[in-house]
Amino acid sequence: MSNLITLKPRISANQGIPSIPIRTTLDNSTTVQYAGLLHQLTVKAKSTVRDIDPQNDLTFLRIRSKKHEIMVAPDKEYLLIVIQNPCE
Amino acid sequence: MGHPEIYPLVLTTKTQEIFNCRVDEDVTEEQPYKLIKKEDIFADFANRAAVSDFYPVKKIVQEYPGDELLLVYDRDFKYGLNFYLIGTEEGKENYLNPPELPEEQEEYKDHIPEETYIYKPPISKPWVSLGSEKEIEEESVKESTKQITYMISRKRSEFGAPIKFSDQNASSVKDAYIECTAYPDKNFTLKQLERDVGMQVVPQIKETSTQTRWTCPKNATTQYYPREFLEEEKEALGQSKTLTEFLNSVCTSVEIALQQNEIMNTFIHDWKCLAEEEGTFGDKTDTHLKEYQSFTDLHSLTEKMITCVSWHPVIYGLIAVSVAVRLSFEERVHFSGKLLLQPSLILFWSFSDPIHPQLMLESPDDIFCFQFCPTDPNIIAGGCINGQVVMWDITAHADRIENIKAGGSRSKKVTLKPMFLLEPESNKKEMYIRHCAVSSIESGHRKVITDIHWLPDTFEINRLGNVFENRSGISCQLVTCSADCTICFWDIRPQKAVTPQPQAEKKKEESIEIPFDIPSTFLHLDLSWKPLSKIRLSKGETTLDHCPTKLSLSEDNLLYKAQEKILAQSKAVKAGEMNPYQNLENALSNILKPIDDFCTKFFVGTEEGEVIYTDWKMERDPETGRFMTKKPVSLYTVHDGAVHTVQRSPFYKDIILTVGGWNVAIWKEGIMTGPLLQSCCAPKRYTSGHWSLTRPGVFYIGREDGYIDIWDLLEKTHEPAQSQNICITMIMYIKPWTFSAKQQFIAIADYYGTLHILEIPWTLSHPSTNEVSSISHYFEREVKHLEYVEQRKNIREQERREMELELEKKKVKTFQKSKEQLEAELKMDYESYLELEKNILSNLGLTKVKDSKSYMELI
């Protein structure tokens, strides 16, 4: 079961600026891909939660697929993405 | 009878008394009526007012013209009440004088048959109007308006001329008509004050589209790369406080999530995993092998036994069997003259014909093992009892056997001449095919060849045992092992002539006429074929050597997966029309690359029941400088009799099954400590064995009493899962084969020369879900068990040694101790004696001396 961790920041609160990886255990291209895609998804998820209830907020996002599970922990500035192979 | 005048009344008894119309006294059947005076009724009204029974008809009584009213007793309640009053004079009269009519009717009835009918002409009466003329007047049609007549006249000149009438629209001519136009009159307009209306909200949709004009078409591309931080920035950010805070806050939730996943897979479909695959054919409870067919050669003269069985790799329903004479060595020698006359054969049986074999391959002596070439099923190599390797090429007859299933036309004309040593028998219509090549008698094996394998077409070896890649794409090398304790590698390609052949031999070759029907594929090998290299399995210092019975190379399970390969190759061959086997010389000219890291080790089973794991690479012996075979890596004596099956599992490349003597063992390549599984001794000797081709945990073992034991490692590992009787005698060979997912056959050869084909039931041929992984887990557990046992052994060894050391130490210690102890004891004794002396002297009165002494000592 390998756990792969990447850390990415968000430079400003502007949503036009994508996130840039700080530290990663994956190779560069995969990291960049994950960063871009998951950042957008997190923003969307967060806005969904807040639309339903403005006093609510997104704390954790888990996406489970056939092959692995992706976990995203958002923050004001940073974003932590963990990819795990679940045990079968 | 004047019903409207009847007024029903109820008269109480009091009223009846007053008016003297008591029931059944004054009024009876005969005279049910009574005339009552008006004044009496009025008096009753005055007396009793509303209580009077006549009150409801007060008005009628007041208006009654006459003086007396008729009151009738209504005995039958015809009008609903017990009395009724007739309200008019006429009614009274009618009532009182009714009987005329009924009497008339009665008279009339009596008089009809007697009087004849007298015609009375109708008398005209004045017409009485009953209103019908009004109706007629209404219904009749009359002209309501007076008709206007117009007289139109023409000019006198046109009198008599034809007239032409035409139509004209009134509105086209001015003033042709006068109309009364309708106009809205406000007096008659209605204003609707209330209205019932339904409404629906509909979104307004608007669609528009525009099209831009692409004035200057030009292709443009953009390339981008993602922004990244520089290393220093990364470091800086990595150290920042905010980052650490963030990580701390987020850490716990991430850990929880990770742990959750590791603990349990929450999305697993339990029911799905539990279920077995659907779609079973046949009964699930049926676990017996079913007899399908059996083949025996009826034409042979002596009793034969089957030594080796092989299914044709490509053609359905074709199985080849090698038969040998069932005699011991002494008997063979005794009957050797007779045996020469009989051909030693490999028979090809087909499902379509159980009596006559399709092909018979002929060899110089009894064949004990043979194999189809994995890359070309028309080449067969076999090992003889005299140590020769024999090759056949049946490409010419391939068509014959390919079309067997489709009815099989057994041609009556014999196109082959049988071998000149044989007497041709008239009823033999089958084809005898002579061998193509035999190995050289002097340089080959000396004793019976016990096992023969083709090397796969992925590699080749040279004289020293080094491995090279095989560029020719065909299997061109063989390995044989024989009872003369050697293993030989053979190459079927023509060897470069190392020594020039002497002229005499050449002459010999020329003089021998080759019968025209034998293909010349292996002509270069015939009688001069030498092995590439020979390995002697020596036991070291002693002269006794290991006598190998079976081999298992690392890539042995080719034949089962060779079907697709062969089909592809045969297609290619047909397209290219060049059989690589015909041009074997070309194959040699390639310069080959050596393959490194190739596992050159293999398993050998011996006559004595040992399983040896050894290497075929030659190494240089430091003393003599020659190339010697290496010593075996490991050797185990596990079986009590000759090992007759050494086989790799078709599912796992490093699991080997060995069967010999009275037990079975399963080994894993690389584990040097021992077999993974070793069964206990069976009641009967095991004489053959084979893995199942589709189920990884199943293998078949044949016994000497004709029973076949089916072992299922998932069910039981200490004894066979089931046992079934096949024949009455020893089972010599077992070979299963898969034709399709539904059909799996197993060929069992017995000692008396009969080949039984049985069908494997669904339960034995179809693996359950996850069977491969379960069995591999089982093997891993066994490996761990062995390791554990080893560890325990070491631990025990250590413990034992420690215990011995301790014992030793103890012995030494006690010895020393006793010496010291003695001294101490002596000292104590002496001191206690001194004490005793003191006490006695003091008791005797000599203490003064002691005291003074002591006093003096003090001073």
Automatic annotation (TrEMBL), chain A:
Gene3D superfamilies reported for this sequence: Dynein light chain 2a, cytoplasmic (3.30.450.30)
SUPFAM superfamilies, A to Z: Roadblock/LC7 domain
InterPro entries, per the entry: Roadblock/LAMTOR2_dom (IPR004942)
SMART domains linked: Robl_LC7
Roadblock/LAMTOR2 domain span: 3-84
Family membership: Belongs to the GAMAD family.
Protein's name according to its UniProt entry: Roadblock/LAMTOR2 domain-containing protein
Origin organism lineage: Eukaryota, Metazoa, Chordata, Craniata, Vertebrata
TrEMBL record, chain B:
Xref: Gene3D superfamilies: YVTN repeat-like/Quinoprotein amine dehydrogenase
First-listed, main subcellular location of the protein, grouped into a coarse class: cytoplasm
Locations listed in the record: Cytoplasm
Coiled-coil region: 786-839
GO (cellular component) term, any one: inner dynein arm
Keyword Repeat: yes
GO annotation terms (biological process): cilium movement involved in cell motility; inner dynein arm assembly
Keyword field: Coiled coil, Cytoplasm, Repeat, WD repeat
Keyword Coiled coil annotated: yes
Organism domain of life: Eukaryota
GO molecular function: dynein heavy chain binding; dynein light chain binding
Record note on quaternary structure: Interacts with ACTR2; this interaction reduces binding of the Arp2/3 complex to the VCA domain of nucleation promoting factors. Part of the multisubunit axonemal dynein complex formed at least of two heavy chains and a number of intermediate and light chains. Found in a associated with the catalytic heavy chain DNAH2, the intermediate chain DNAI4, and the light chain DYNLT1.
Database matches in PANTHER family: DYNEIN AXONEMAL INTERMEDIATE CHAIN 3, DYNEIN INTERMEDIATE CHAIN
Protein task: Acts as a negative regulator of cell migration, invasion, and metastasis downstream of p53/TP53, through inhibition of Arp2/3 complex-mediated actin polymerization. Via its association with the multisubunit axonemal dynein complex, is potentially involved in the regulation of cilia function. May play a role in osteogenesis of dental tissue-derived mesenchymal stem cells.
The protein, known as: Dynein axonemal intermediate chain 3
